[in-house]
Amino acid sequence: MSAAGNALRVVRLLHELDELRVMDVADRLGVARSTAHRVLAMLVFEGFAVQDRHKVYRPGPALRAIRGSQAGPPPDLITIAHPHLQRLADAVRETTHLMVLEGNGSRFLDGVEGSQALRVSYRTGTLLPAHVTSGGKALLAALPADRLRALYPNGLPEDRAKAPKDFESLMKELVSVRRHGYALNFQESERGVHAVGACVRDRTGAAVAAVVVAAPSVRSTRARLAELSQPLLATTRDIGQGL
User: Fold this and answer.
1) Sorting pLDDT into bands at 50, 70 and 90, what band is 158?
2) CB–CB of 220/192 below 8 Å?
3) Within 13 Å and on the Cβ side, how many CA atoms surround 112?
4) Region 141-155: what's the mean pLDDT?
5) Exposure b/e, 149-171, CB count within 10 A at least 16 = b
6) What span, in angstroms and rounded, lies between the C-alpha atoms of 213 and 225?
7) pLDDT tens digits for range 220-239
8) Would you say domain 3-68 falls under CATH 1.10.10.10?
9) Which CATH number is 76-242's, of 3.90.1150.10, 3.30.450.40, 3.40.30.10, 3.40.50.12780?
10) How far from 125 is each of 32, 99, 100, 197, 218, CA to CA, in Å?
11) 23 — alpha (psi -120 to 50), left (phi > 0) or beta?
12) Is 200 helix (H, G, I), strand (E, B) or coil?
């Protein structure tokens, strides 16, 4: 009964927090790390959890199926995408990110830092409002109008100086995103950072994630971001083919 209780508590934690480490489980349950590791290993075996390359445990396919409409990204997304993120970062010498939509937020799942001395750091694990990130805007643009509006019943959740001011302004920007196939971010999520993002679509055409190239604003003009969109779009297609 104790083992079953621990397993159920960890499933609940995964559902609520979306990511766990062995030390988190040990602290929450008040057990040794070896016990926490065994519980997580059992959940991985049964499909309730998956472990990414950073040894972080996330909801697995069995848990995502129970969550229904709250299903997360494909379990192999990070594993498949990372080599492509690395190649893109090497090619453009800027930082690359992988992110998914969580409600009206964008969650950074993985990243590779650029090779230049002045560069943007990767932000794995961070959750930001989707409408202030280029990847988030690319994913919002892929949603049908009714689902998009349902994400913002009270308008945009955060007032940032350079972000869209209201829902209608966001809608107008998303029209441009759909037309060009990529979204831009000019210091909306962080001062001194510009970025371009595009959707990763699986073989059914569904938008499951976004890839972003982020660079210091001093060398990422609008024209430069447009240039970066070409290798970026090629990368998203390659990742999609691998899913």
Assistant:
1) low
2) no
3) 20
4) 87
5) eebbeeebeeeeeebbeebeebb
6) 9
7) 999 999 999 999 999 999 99
8) yes
9) 3.30.450.40
10) 25, 9, 11, 18, 26
11) alpha
12) strand
Distance CA(136)–CA(104), nearest Å, equals 8
Could you tell me whether strands 193-201 and 207-216 are parallel, antiparallel, or unpaired per DSSP bridges? antiparallel
pLDDT in tens, 121-135: 888 888 899 999 999
Q: How many helices (H) and strands (E) does the chain have?
A: 9, 8
Encoding tokens for residue 66?
A: 């129970």
Task: Go through the chain and tell me how many residues it has.
Answer: 243
* CA–CA gap between residue 197 and residue 185 (Å, rounded): 8
Q: Which two tokens stand for residue 49?
A: 């959890």
Q: How far apart are CA 232 and CA 225, in angstroms?
A: 10
CB-CB contact of 13 with 28 (8 Å): yes
| Unique residue bearing structure tokens 């999520």 | 189
Q: Encoding tokens for residue 142?
A: 């892929």
Report residue 112 as tokens: 């590779």
Kindly state the average pLDDT of the residues 112-120.
93
Beta bridge partners of 110: 98
pLDDT at 69: 45
